């Protein structure tokens, strides 16, 4: 093209005579003669002109290209604006009110409502992500939200554009002067694109494979919550065991592989839940199925951590108001009060013994916290008489008790052992001592208390029924205790922080998974130093906002179910609606039993023996065995249909 443009100019250039002399003689060509020739001047002028024309032609071509691009962009923006204008938000009338019965102003508002987004948040969710749009304006009270496309609470990605979920509504996003783009590194969700333009808001969610999404209207927080499911999953079975007791099994595809988990939901108005010690004492083991059978319960899961060799439950155990074992590292506990209401908190234990010597007398009045029952005796919750201030003498005669029926974590600790521990106390600490306390009725206070019965610095003492053995290092207070004469009255004070003296049952676990409705995994604070990122079988317990209890187990160490990390358990418990949730012992200990059947797939076919279990039983003690066995038989037959998915 450039050749055709410039060829007329080049054709008109004539060779000067100085280089074509007559008679065929040629003059010698030198650089000086060439530069001074007319031909050099003509050639230079022609090339300059051709260069200028080339630049002009290039500019015209670029102008044409940019004009074409601008025209296409303008056409797309016009089409998008036209499409957005056709999409609006519908607000359905409150339940019980038809559209015709709504006031005219309300009907118009429902048709013309504009949503103004003041905050955009992105959060991870179980097997997916959440997009949360917080609105500046509120919907009418009791109204629900929907779109013109008749999409209620669930919708799928479009078949015509399978790689993009599109939502649009009338409104604006505060401070969004340019599109907001959020990239994800998940296998299925690639990008979220949010744009506010011409009084409309449009949201695109791009992904790689067809999955579903849900949107919910959170009226309390004035938020539109869009949850995008990154990983596919399907529910294997759903069984209504009895009124107030429901079970479901879910098979979910996760990034690491397939996962199968089991959920039991319990109505506390119909069922009681309480811990069980294997064979009724510390240091024993039994399977969850054996403990469910022994208590006549309907459901059971494994509970606290324990020492594998001796079966000693590690952490708090409260049974029927009796403080059987104290906490370790102040780990989180699940408790049930006298009204069958659940509580969850990190628990610490405090105890003191006081010797009746140097004029000290038994307390004449009780103050402070409520009492715990220990070794079958309701112990007073206070150490001193009301208004009595501690003196140097009283301080010298107080022996701190750091725990009850637990292994000594530190050499400086003094631990108290009851018959729940067994018939004999642990070995005497090196360089330490043990003291035996037996119960008696104090004539002064009229209460059952303890008195010194025996001491030992070499041999572990036997624990009689109703008695206590104090075991610890030979500090100043222990030295005074072992030199007292037998029969000396010993006053006691035991309490927990927070005050759980009104708790009827409790069991320890850890760490937290959900606290006050927020995901929270305090692994190091509770002195768990491994296991956060490991994929393992899991067991957890949770409490919903309405008091409904959640028992959850996750199968693991299997090709059909790889298990979960603690973080994934946190997301799962949140997704199940738990306001409070905590982890329990997992791995090979994880077991869930309904009736006499394992609902999960333990790593051992019959379940490994464990130290404790949490069991569920009807409050009215109504027999459910026959109907339960029938339902389990049906569920087992239904489950066989899914064997190819499981194993």
Give your account of this protein's structure.
By secondary structure, the chain is an alpha+beta fold. The chain has ten helices and 39 strands. The chain has a nine-stranded mixed sheet with strand order 5-10-11-3-2-6-9-8-7. An eight-stranded antiparallel sheet has the order 12-13-14-35-34-36-32-33, sandwiched between helices. An eight-stranded mixed sheet has the order 24-21-30-28-27-29-26-25. Helix 1 packs antiparallel against helix 3 (38-85). The longest helix is centred in the first third of the chain and has 48 residues, at 38-85. The radius of gyration is 40 Å and the shape is elongated.
Kindly report the average pLDDT value. 74
Biggest sheet record:
9 strands, mixed
Kindly state the percentage of residues in helix: 10-25%
- Which regions are unreliable across 5 or more consecutive residues at pLDDT < 50? 1-26, 75-113, 142-157, 357-369, 381-394, 622-647
**Strand tally, please?**
39
In percent, how much strand structure appears in the residues? 35-45%
The rough form would be described as elongated
The quaternary structure here is single chain
**N-to-C span:** 71 Å
Strand order in the sheet with the most strands? 5-10-11-3-2-6-9-8-7
* Count of alpha/pi helices: 10
Structural class: alpha+beta
Cα gyration radius (Å) = 40 Å
């Amino acid at each position: 093209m450039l050749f055709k443009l410039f060829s007329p100019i080049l054709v008109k250039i004539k060779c000067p005579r100085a280089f074509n002399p007559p008679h065929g003689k040629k003059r010698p060509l030198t650089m000086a003669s060439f530069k001074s020739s007319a031909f050099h001047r003509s050639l230079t002028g022609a090339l300059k002109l051709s260069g200028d024309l080339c630049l002009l032609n290039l500019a015209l071509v670029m102008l044409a290209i940019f004009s074409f691009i601008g025209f296409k962009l303008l056409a797309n923006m016009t089409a998008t604006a036209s499409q957005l204008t056709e999409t609006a938000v519908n607000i359905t009338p409150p339940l019980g009110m038809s559209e015709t019965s709504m006031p005219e102003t309300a009907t118009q508002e429902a048709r013309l409502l504009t949503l103004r987004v003041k905050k955009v948040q992105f959060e991870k969710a179980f097997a997916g992500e959440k997009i949360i749009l917080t609105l500046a304006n509120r919907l009418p009270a009791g109204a629900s939200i929907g779109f013109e496309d008749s999409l209620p609470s669930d919708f799928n990605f479009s078949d015509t554009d399978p790689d993009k979920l599109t939502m649009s509504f009338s409104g604006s996003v505060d401070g969004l002067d340019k599109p907001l783009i959020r990239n994800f590194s998940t296998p299925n969700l690639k990008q979220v694109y949010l744009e506010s333009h011409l009084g409309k808001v449009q949201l695109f969610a791009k992904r790689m494979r067809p999955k579903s999404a849900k949107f919910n209207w959170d009226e309390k927080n004035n938020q539109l919550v869009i949850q995008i499911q990154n990983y596919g999953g399907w529910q294997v079975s759903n069984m209504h065991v009895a009124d107030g007791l429901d079970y479901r099994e879910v098979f979910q595809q996760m990034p690491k592989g397939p996962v199968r988990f089991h959920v039991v939901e319990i109505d506390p108005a119909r069922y009681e839940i309480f811990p069980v010690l294997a064979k009724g004492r510390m240091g024993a083991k039994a399977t969850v199925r054996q403990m469910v059978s022994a208590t006549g319960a309907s459901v059971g899961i494994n509970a606290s951590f324990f020492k594998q060799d001796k079966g000693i439950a590690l952490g708090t155990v409260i049974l029927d108001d009796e403080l059987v074992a104290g906490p370790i590292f102040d780990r989180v506990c699940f408790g049930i009060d006298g009204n069958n209401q659940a509580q969850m908190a990190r628990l610490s234990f405090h105890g003191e013994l006081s010797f009746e010597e140097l004029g000290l007398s038994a307390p004449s009045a009780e103050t402070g916290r409520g009492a715990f029952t220990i070794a079958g005796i309701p112990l007073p919750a206070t150490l001193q008489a009301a208004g009595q201030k501690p003196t140097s003498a009283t301080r010298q005669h107080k022996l701190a008790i750091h725990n009850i029926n637990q292994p000594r974590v530190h050499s400086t600790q003094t631990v108290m052992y009851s018959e729940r521990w067994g018939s004999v106390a642990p070995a005497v600490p090196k360089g330490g001592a043990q003291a035996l306390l037996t119960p008696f009725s104090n004539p002064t206070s009229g209460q059952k208390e303890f008195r010194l019965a025996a001491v030992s610095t070499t041999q572990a003492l036997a624990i009689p029924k109703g008695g206590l053995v104090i075991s610890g290092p030979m500090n100043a207070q222990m030295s005074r205790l072992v030199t007292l004469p037998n029969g000396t009255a010993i006053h006691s004070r035991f309490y927990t922080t927070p005050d759980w003296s009104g708790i009827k049952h409790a069991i320890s676990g850890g760490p937290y998974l959900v606290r006050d409705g927020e995901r929270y995994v305090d692994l190091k604070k509770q002195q768990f130093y491994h296991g956060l990122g490991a994929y393992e079988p899991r067991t957890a317990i949770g409490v919903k906002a309405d008091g409904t209890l959640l028992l959850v187990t996750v199968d693991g160490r299997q090709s059909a179910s790889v298990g979960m990390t603690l973080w994934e358990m946190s997301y799962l418990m949140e997704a199940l609606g738990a306001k409070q949730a905590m982890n329990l012992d997992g791995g090979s200990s994880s077991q869930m039993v309904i009736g006499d059947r394992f609902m999960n797939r333990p790593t051992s076919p019959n379940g490994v023996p464990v130290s404790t279990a949490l069991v569920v039983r009807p409050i009215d003690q109504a027999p459910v065995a026959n109907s339960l066995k029938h339902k389990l038989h049906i569920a087992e037959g239904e489950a066989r249909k899914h064997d190819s998915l499981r194993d």
